[in-house]
Design brief:
Helix content: 25-40%
Bound molecules: pyridoxal-5'-phosphate
Number of helices: 13
Strand order of the largest sheet: 4-12-11-10-7-5-6
Low-confidence stretches: none
CATH superfamily of the largest domain: Type I PLP-dependent aspartate aminotransferase-like (Major domain)
CATH topology of the largest domain: Aspartate Aminotransferase, domain 2
Mean pLDDT: 97
Radius of gyration: 21 Å
Structural class: alpha/beta
Strand content: 15-25%
Shape: globular
Distance between the termini: 43 Å
Length: 405
């Protein structure tokens, strides 16, 4: 029974969901009611170590005091006025995002998908400015950019769902990391190459430096924009504020969301100088975007994450996590950078079943593919929490019959 009388509990919540929600999600069998740092608590008061952080949203931990203070103070003063007027937190956040990355202009929105929609508009408008009548956007096969029709068209595997058609034209995909195919696909009609520097939803697959360099060169040759989707990799996740800082290339546009708001919905499309003037009055907009609460939260997040000591810890904790995982029976290898970690499991081990078993053992992770676990712990995770997670994953793998090395 729930310990808090205002909570109806898992069974009753599930019943409501069955009756009233569209069936778009497959949920883990738990009903969370509270979070603090790296921990979540269910309706029965049971504690879970959270190594998913709301899919890399609660990156500085659940209910971080700086975010809570920023949100509550702002909520008491002013919640919303729309984009018909100036608000200071939005302007300050734009400055901070621009100066910490590409140095151009920022368009705000409310999610990752919308950040990519904005980037697609920027790319198409930029291309029309170069005299391209039917601009194309090129991506790799297994990328994920979101589920609205523009972002979906740039997400080749999901765009094949014909029941959702017709899809938006003007999108091209090539095999993952195939530099040659990418260069062949980029030509005079190309508006942009849109890439995740590390593919997140497909199971944490870093895009190779070779492929990134080829993309940069191909874009430069035809005047196209190189766009990095940093919605999952950004805001410190990989051990630098932006993942591109650890690659050999600098993109022209980046998109951000997820961790940016520390739990509040906000997205941003951030340009360098080349694309900064593409969108003009009338081209784009959003009622909710960059409201005072979300932007105050984001300023508190950046104040916390944009700190060399924290980013160093992300790299160190990432190494500790991967070293521990690689010694476990049933683990074939790990992928990723910083605290964005994919765990490849031995053939015959079912990753979603391990994920469900870990949830029963009090560890939250997810399984983006049948043979892969994904770990996205909060960036403030402590060494003993890393060790506990590795221990729990080891116990679960052993119980599933993993063989070891
Ligand atoms: C999560 C994600 C998106 C979509 O973000 P939403 O906020 O769910 O719309 C897009 N691209 C990448 C790389 C993501 O990880």
């Amino acid at each position: 029974m729930p310990s808090d009388p205002s909570v109806i509990g898992l069974a009753a919540t599930r019943e409501l969901e069955e009756r009233y929600l569209m069936r778009t999600y497959k949920r883990g069998a738990v009903d969370f009611v509270r979070g603090e740092g790296a921990y979540l608590y269910d309706a029965e008061g049971r504690q879970y170590l959270d190594f998913l952080a709301g899919i890399s949203v609660c990156s500085i931990g659940h209910c971080h005091p700086a975010v809570v203070a920023a949100v509550t103070e702002q909520a008491e003063r002013l919640m919303h006025v729309s984009n018909l007027f100036y608000t200071e937190p939005m302007a300050r956040l734009a400055q901070r995002l621009s100066e910490s990355s590409l140095g151009g202009r920022v368009f705000f929105c409310n999610s990752g998908t919308e950040a990519n929609e904005a980037a697609i508009k920027v790319a198409r408008k930029h291309a029309h400015g170069r005299g391209i009548a039917a601009p194309e956007i090129v991506s790799f096969e297994s990328e994920f950019h979101g589920r609205s029709y523009g972002a979906l068209a740039a997400t080749p595997k999901l765009a094949r769902n014909e029941a959702l058609g017709p899809m938006l034209p003007g999108f091209v995909s090539v095999p993952d990391n195939d530099a040659e195919a990418l260069c062949a696909a980029v030509g005079p009609h190309t508006a942009a190459v849109l890439i995740e520097p590390i593919q997140g939803e497909s199971g944490v697959w870093p895009t190779t430096d070779e492929a990134l360099l080829a993309a940069r060169q191909a874009c430069d040759e035809v005047g196209a924009l190189l766009i990095f989707d940093e919605i999952q990799t950004g805001i410190g996740r990989t051990g630098s504020l932006w993942a591109y800082e650890q690659t050999p290339v600098r993109p022209d546009v980046i998109t951000s969301a997820k961790a940016l708001g520390g739990g509040m919905p906000i997205g941003a499309c951030i340009t360098g100088p080349a694309a900064a003037e593409a969108l003009q009055p009338g081209d784009h907009g959003s009622t909710f975007a960059a409201g005072p609460i979300a932007t105050s939260a984001a300023l508190a997040v950046l104040e916390t994450v944009d700190d060399p000591a924290l980013l160093r810890s992300v790299r160190e904790m990432g190494t500790r996590l991967r070293t521990g995982l690689e010694e476990l029976p049933g683990v074939v290898g790990t992928r990723g950078r910083g605290l964005m970690v994919g765990v490849a499991l031995e053939e015959g081990i079912d990753a979603p079943a391990i994920g469900a078993d870990l949830l029963r053992r009090g560890l939250v992770v997810n399984a983006p593919a049948p043979d892969t676990l994904r770990l996205l712990p909060p960036l403030v995770v402590e060494p003993d929490q890393i060790d506990r997670a590795v221990g729990l994953i080891g116990e679960s793998l052993l119980a599933s019959g993993a063989h070891g090395h």
